[in-house]
């Protein structure tokens, strides 16, 4: 498996919508395995395909992270089928490193997708995992978590990002 380069928000691929996956071929399987490795390496909760430069309609998520375990699963052509409640919590993104903001999300979601073997799967999630699903769905729509905030807050976060980038170079 290969650790892939995670693109940051300045890369236009982050604005691309995921193209539906028609065929789970070897290239898709290899991509998701590499995305597992990349997520673990980056200590992330999930990763969408366009974050590694491949705008396919799929993401991976670590369902074990809250238990301090790893249980990485792939959701292909996912659809959120139910959303309930609201929760404010801090959120970050591997494509906007070192920047965090409070984002309002549904507390509870149900999602359906196809797994890497081509089987239908459904997940129900609450709190942190529900947030992770919503965050990854945003990526598949070419959206980023800070798009859910007002322009003033987003501009502030962009300035923070630029400052952090400078610090990392120095
Ligand atoms: Ni993200």
CATH class: Alpha Beta
**How much helical structure, as a percent, in the residues?**
25-40%
Which oligomeric form is depicted?
A: single chain
Question: What would you call the shape?
Answer: globular
- Under the CATH scheme, the architecture is Alpha-Beta Complex
The tally of strands reads: 7
In N-to-C order, the SSE pattern is: HEEEEEEEHH
Task: Characterise the protein shown here.
This protein is an alpha+beta fold and 170 residues long. The protein has a single domain (12-169), classed as Peptide deformylase (Peptide Deformylase), CATH 3.90.45.10. Helices cover 29% and strands 31% of the residues. The chain has three helices and seven strands, in the order H-E-E-E-E-E-E-E-H-H. It has helices at residues 26-42, 128-140, 151-169, and strands at residues 46-48, 58-62, 72-84, 87-93, 96-105, 108-114, 120-126. The strands form two sheets. The protein has a five-stranded antiparallel beta sheet with strand order 1-2-3-6-7. A hairpin with a 2-residue loop joins strand 4 (87-93) and strand 5 (96-105). The mean pLDDT is 96. The structure holds nickel (II) ion.
């Amino acid at each position: 498996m290969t650790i892939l380069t995670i693109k940051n928000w300045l890369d236009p691929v982050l604005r691309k919508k995921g193209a539906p996956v028609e065929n789970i071929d070897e290239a898709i399987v290899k991509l998701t395995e590499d995305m597992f490795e990349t997520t673990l390496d980056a200590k992330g909760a999930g990763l969408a395909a366009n974050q590694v430069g491949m705008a396919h309609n799929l993401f991976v998520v670590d369902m074990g992270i809250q238990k301090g375990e790893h249980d990485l699963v792939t959701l292909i052509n996912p659809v959120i089928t139910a959303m309930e409640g609201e929760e404010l919590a801090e959120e970050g993104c591997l494509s906007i490193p070192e920047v965090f903001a409070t984002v309002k999300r549904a507390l509870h979601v149900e999602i359906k997708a196809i797994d890497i073997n081509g089987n239908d799967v459904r997940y129900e999630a609450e709190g942190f995992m529900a947030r992770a699903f919503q965050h990854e769905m945003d990526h598949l729509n070419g959206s980023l978590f800070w798009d859910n905030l007002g322009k003033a807050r987003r501009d502030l976060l962009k300035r923070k990002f630029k400052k952090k980038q400078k610090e990392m170079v120095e």
